């Protein structure tokens, strides 16, 4: 309550204390879990979700597998690019971490000395989630859900204001969506070339699923010729 009184009428700080106040009432072991999940666990889960989606696309082996894999490659690239864009934003805004400005917060992780706006974790998580959504709606919705949970965890941990998280969501979404057409135009031909290669084709399609309509021709050279010959003999007879 003291923290709320100090926050005045600022809804950003009020919401910070409301969410972070949950950590004070929670068991110590739960806070330790939330700290680990918010710092590492959810980002790892998003990376595994991207890998799972790639494995699913690869095994299915659809005609648009190359473009789907290109979208999946773009997801981590978008996250990395969004973090680079965030570097000058942080330097320009220079917003201190909330625990440096407000007393009474329950801080679940230590060693945070950089600026607060915008949240790198929220930026990376949402860029991955939206990038996944571009590739696959079902996996993308799950990824966006994990990104929202990541944002909640950052406020719960006492290391970010809610607006830091919202800013991260906006930055990650903007980079992943606005640059997606250019990224797909560059990555899709590259993935198509890899798909046609003898060594890297397995990255796009599982073995035996490349060109299923004409797969018999590739696996059994000359089969069509024999079939055509048989038809000619039947006609001659």
TrEMBL record:
Gene3D superfamilies: Phosphatidic acid phosphatase type 2/haloperoxidase. It is a multi-pass membrane protein. The keyword Ligase does not apply. This is Phosphatase PAP2 family protein. It is found in: Cell membrane. InterPro entries: PAP2/HPO, PAP2/HPO_sf. Signal peptide: none annotated. The chain crosses the membrane at residues 40-57, 69-89, 115-134, 141-159, 165-187. Keywords: Cell membrane, Hydrolase, Membrane, Transmembrane, Transmembrane helix. Residues 75-180 form the Phosphatidic acid phosphatase type 2/haloperoxidase domain. Residues 208-237 are annotated as: Disordered. It comes from Streptomyces lanatus.
């Amino acid at each position: 309550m003291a923290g709320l009184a100090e926050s005045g009428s600022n809804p950003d700080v009020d919401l910070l204390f409301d969410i972070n106040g949950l950590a004070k009432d929670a068991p110590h072991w739960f806070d330790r879990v939330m700290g680990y999940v918010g710092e590492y666990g959810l980002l790892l889960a998003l990376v595994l979700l991207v890998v799972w989606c790639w494995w699913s696309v690869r095994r299915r082996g659809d005609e648009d597998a190359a473009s789907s894999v290109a979208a999946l490659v773009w997801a981590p690239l978008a996250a990395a690019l969004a973090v680079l864009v965030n570097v000058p934003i942080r330097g320009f805004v220079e917003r201190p971490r909330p625990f440096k400005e407000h007393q009474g917060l329950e801080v679940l992780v230590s060693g945070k000395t950089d600026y607060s706006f915008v949240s790198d974790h929220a930026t990376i998580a949402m860029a991955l989630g939206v990038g996944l959504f571009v590739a696959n709606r079902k996996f993308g919705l799950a990824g966006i859900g994990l990104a929202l949970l990541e944002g909640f965890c950052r406020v719960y941990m006492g290391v970010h204001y809610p607006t830091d998280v919202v800013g991260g969501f906006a930055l990650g979404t903007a980079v992943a969506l606005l640059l997606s057409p250019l990224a797909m135009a560059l990555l899709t031909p590259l993935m198509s070339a890899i798909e046609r290669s003898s060594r890297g084709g397995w990255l796009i399609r599982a073995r035996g699923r490349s060109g299923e309509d004409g797969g018999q021709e590739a696996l059994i050279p000359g089969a069509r010729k024999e079939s055509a010959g048989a038809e000619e003999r039947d006609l001659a007879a």
